[in-house]
From TrEMBL:
Topology term for the membrane: Multi-pass membrane protein
Species this chain originates from: Hyphopichia burtonii NRRL Y-1933
Predominant location category: membrane
Pfam families: COPI_assoc
Protein's name according to its UniProt entry: COPI associated
GO biological process: vesicle-mediated transport
Family matches, as PANTHER family: GOLGI APPARATUS MEMBRANE PROTEIN TVP15
Keyword Zinc-finger annotated: no
Keywords assigned by UniProt, alphabetized: Membrane, Transmembrane, Transmembrane helix
Segments crossing the lipid bilayer: 13-31, 38-59, 65-87, 94-113
Length: 138
């Protein structure tokens, strides 16, 4: 199967939709998980925080993000993060099962995209030009 036809396509919109979908599903799943017990409450808080972080990275990439969360700037790192996030969603309702499955599948697709050299990462996953301490450029 040849992916050469994909090299000219602008896939930034598709990546943005996928990342917003993951962010929205994780935040909604985390909120619905808050009221299921103490352990679910704590994991729900983490899931909400991770979902908000993913959504925030679609608007602005702070320089600290590449320093402390550099795995989010590659397809394989983001894919593994999404699969772990999908696994950590509590599966006690049909919505959370579907949300976890969708987040997991998007993660697996991101992992697979690492092996396709003709598809370049979107702009918000590109680490070039991120300023650290207002002087250094990576």
């Amino acid at each position: 199967m040849s992916f050469d036809s994909l090299s000219g396509l602008d896939l930034n919109g598709a990546f943005k939709i996928a990342n917003f979908s993951v962010a929205g599903l994780t935040v909604i799943s985390g909120i619905s998980q808050l009221f299921s017990g103490f352990h679910s409450f704590l994991s729900g808080l983490y899931i909400i925080a991770f979902g908000l972080g993913i959504g925030f990275l679609e608007f602005r990439v702070p320089s600290e993000a590449y320093t402390y969360a550099s795995f989010l700037f590659s397809f394989i790192g983001r894919g593994i993060f999404y699969t772990f996030l999908g696994i950590s969603i509590n599966l006690s309702s049909i919505f959370r099962i579907l949300a976890a499955l969708l987040v997991f599948i998007i993660g697996v697709v991101y992992i697979g995209l690492e092996a396709v050299p003709s598809i370049s990462p979107p702009q918000n996953m590109n680490a070039e030009g991120i300023a650290i301490n207002d002087e250094d450029i990576i």
